[in-house]
Design goal:
Order of helices and strands: HHEEEEEE
Radius of gyration: 23 Å
Number of domains: 1
Number of helices: 2
Strand order of the largest sheet: 1-2-5-4-3-6
CATH topology: Elongation Factor Tu (Ef-tu), domain 3
Helix content: 10-25%
Largest sheet: 6 strands, antiparallel, barrel
Distance between the termini: 85 Å
Structural class: alpha+beta
Length: 134
C-alpha cells in the first residue's frame, strides 16, 4: 500500500471516529398554568365530578420521583389516592399516588414518564380523584 493510500485510510478512520453524535432531544417544559386558567379548569373539573381535586405541582425531587401538590386541601386526600399530571398544553405527563399528607402538604410519588415524555415540573396541573370516607 502506498503512503498516499495509507494516509487516506487513516484520515477516513479518524474522521469517522470523531464525528460528534447529537444528544437525544429533550422535551421542553410547557409554561406553567396561569392562575386564571388554573382556577377555570378547577371549577370545570369539580363541576363535572365533585370527587376530583385539582391542584398544581409544587416542589419536585426528581431522583426519588416525589413531588408536592399545592392549591389543594390536604385533608381531602388519603394515601393511595390517584393523581394524574398534565402540562399546560393538555398533555398527560404521567400518573402517581398520594404517599402522605403532613402539615397541610400532600406528597405524591409519580411513575416514570413514557418514552419521549417528561416528568412533572413545578406549575403543572395535578388532578386527583379522592376516595369517599369509608
Amino acid at each position: 500500500m502506498s503512503k498516499y493510500s495509507l494516509a487516506i485510510v487513516i484520515a477516513a478512520l479518524t474522521l469517522s471516529g470523531c464525528q460528534q453524535t447529537s444528544p437525544p432531544p429533550t422535551v421542553p417544559a410547557a409554561p406553567p398554568y396561569s392562575m386564571e386558567k388554573f382556577n377555570q379548569l378547577r371549577a370545570e373539573y369539580q363541576q363535572t365530578n365533585p370527587d376530583v381535586r385539582v391542584g398544581l405541582v409544587g416542589d419536585v425531587i426528581a431522583g426519588d420521583r416525589l413531588l408536592t401538590l399545592t392549591n389543594v386541601q390536604a385533608d381531602d386526600f388519603k394515601v393511595g389516592d390517584l393523581v394524574s399530571f398534565w402540562d399546560s398544553n393538555n398533555k398527560l405527563l404521567t400518573s402517581g399516588k398520594v404517599v402522605g399528607t403532613h402539615n397541610g402538604i400532600v406528597s405524591a410519588h409519580y411513575a416514570d414518564p413514557q418514552a419521549g415524555g417528561r416528568a412533572p415540573a413545578k406549575g403543572d396541573l395535578a388532578i386527583g380523584v379522592i376516595r369517599a370516607a369509608q
